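Lab notebook, bench 4. Still working through the backlog of constructs that have no structural model yet. Next entry is a single chain of 181 residues. Request: give me the structure tokens for it.
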Amino acid sequence: METDAVPARVSNILALTYRGKSPWLFLGIGKSDNGRMSIPAAFVKNRKGIHAVIQAASPFRGLETMRWFEAKIRPLFCNHKDNDHFFPAVIDPTKRLPYGTFKSWWSDCAANCGFPGMNPHMFRHGQASILVAQNPGNWSLVSARLGDSEAVCRTAYAWIDHDKLVLAGQQELSKELPRAA
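Model written out:
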């Protein structure tokens, strides 16, 4: 969901419903149908609803992975047929997967991938940092990606933009100066 939709907070993703009354996640019908995620504003930290298309043709295969999870992994959960959450709890079959369980799985996976100590929030900030570094001054891009206001993004990431702009200014001023051999 990070690459093919939006980097939503874990609490929002764990609360995704895909069946029942007013589901937040739709995986499409056919193989070429796009999916979509719509999380109501009342459930989002900044009170701004999350609405994203999940492209069926994405090279990152996010929707394909979610469909695989639905077909192959969800059936391994107790009472998966009666639970409307896309990520059902392991112990209580009527609830969503608890954050603690997800965090434990995440931590093990991150460590195995060479990122010990990286948590989901750091991953979100990492995405924003990359966008800021590659697109100095384009706060609307970062804001749209994170679902935060431009002011919030500037507050959290302006130092990256500033450092890159200072370096660019230094390079511009010194481009005509003689270089040491």
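Notes after review: Helices lie at 10-14, 62-73, 99-112, 120-134, 139-146, 150-174. The first strand starts at residue 25 and ends at 26. Flag for follow-up if needed.
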